[in-house]
Amino acid sequence: MLKLSRTRVRTASGAALALGLACVLSSCAAPPSSGPAAAQEEAAPGFLAVADSALDGQGALTVQLDYDTSEADGLDPATAQTARSWSIMGLVYETLVTTDENFEIQPELATAWEQPDDTTYVFTIDTTATFSNGRAVTVDDVVGSLQRQVDSMSVWSGQMGPIESIEATGDDQVTVRLSSPYAPFLAALANTPAAILPMQEVNDGSLDLATTMLGTGPYVVDAHRQDESWTFTANADWRGGDDLAVQTLELQIVDQETTRQAALREGSAGLANFGSIDALTQLADAGDVQVVNQTQSDFYYVNVNSQVEGSPLQDRDVRFAINTAIDRQAIADIVFAGETTPTGATPSNLPGACAVDALPSEQASVEDAQKLIEESGAGDVTLDMVVYTSEPVMGQIAQLVQQQLAEIGVTVNIEQFDTATYNARVFTAQPGDFDLSLGWFAGYVDPSMVTKWWNPEQAGFNLGFTGQHDDLNALIAEGAEVTDPDERAEVLTELCATADEYSEIVPLVHRPSIVGYDAGAVSPTIQSNEGYGDIFRDITAYRLPDTASE
After folding, report:
1. Which residues pair with 413 in a beta bridge?
2. Measured between alpha carbons, how far is 358 from 246 in angstroms, rounded to an integer?
3. 412: which residues sit within 8 A by CB, 6+ positions away?
4. How far apart are CA 419 and CA 81, in angstroms?
5. Helix (H, G, I), strand (E, B) or coil at 230
6. Global pTM value
């Protein structure tokens, strides 16, 4: 590959004008900012909002969400694959550990743990905790739940690491042994798929996890109508359950953002989520409504299909030229009005992530990319970019990428499809039936976890558009195995650079998560950063005014 060193220089104004002239696929986002995302004013270090401890009301809270949990295995948390499922199921279930506002591991059902060596974890279990049917948690529930996850061959089982054995080593002690060191192990235990389940009831057949949720968490399910609503009530058996401010939680599934905005304005909802950054400005004058932009580790990416025989994208230099021409900061500034930030293969908001500006494509210039295209012999390159219509911002990103690639002589035709057709062309077809495609990854809470998706043998879904690269795969494995922070940072930096040079999955920017709430109805606690998309992570800390129960 041609050695490149010059740093790109872009002007956002020209691209912004081009986007304004080309807003034909979908409505444009808010006006562009003049620079990177401005830091929001935090209520406290690591928090966008902190509940007012002076409020002592109890009652109901209505929340409107854009979509419901929907999993092939129903309500079984072990096989749940979406952040929405993790957050809703997490109201009922608990894990051994959790994460705080700094992505540090904190106790949950495990009150403490020791690590006598690099591959052994000894957990002390809170056996005073009870399931909502009144039965106390046992070490057998813990062992059975973790083993069930490992055996499930689900997406999350691959995140659990090289578990060699799980056994009860005392009345309140469980020991997990790994076959080799695995840095993300505790982080993997901190998400809902690793929830501790009532294994006695699962094993005797009295509980079907696909249809019924029974856990040790703060809430129990009172009613559920798929894609319409949920009703949760406080679990009196949960520690502090009687003291929860939100005694009844009503979740309404409302797919239209304008409808959710109207509900906040008129007071029929106390909290709602939004996918569009427009909500930040559109709700700015809505009385007591407060709107915050929580940084997610989730991020958008472009797939560059290297697996179609005869395609110019089989040439690594052509792919790298495309990667170089894509201006991440311009996407953040123009499509997202400066309300997000660029990222590499390791989500940039996580501790230990690689530096985006050090990526080879970020160190190169548009002129370098043009030279690569010219020297490739590919001539005038025309590519199809497929996007799905359920997330309008995808069309906006596609338009801007289209304009950026035109600068290096690459013509992009944008094709929009429903989600099913998109999935068939991108993830099912072998090879993938596309040249370029847009998507997004959940970024998780450890910087090495999402990098597994660059290895087709581990990911599976990308076999149709990504090649096998032994050097990259070795770095992915090493990034998860190395535990020394400094050494790990070096490995992840090399991993990000190598993935960037292969340019088959090109990370773009973080996916914003907008949360609006009526400050007159609820005082929430909201972390500035979130890794597992859990909109209800701190709901047990919420406070309600006295009038909330009237």
Report:
1. 384
2. 46
3. 382, 383, 384, 385, 398, 401, 402, 405, 406, 436
4. 16
5. strand
6. 0.92
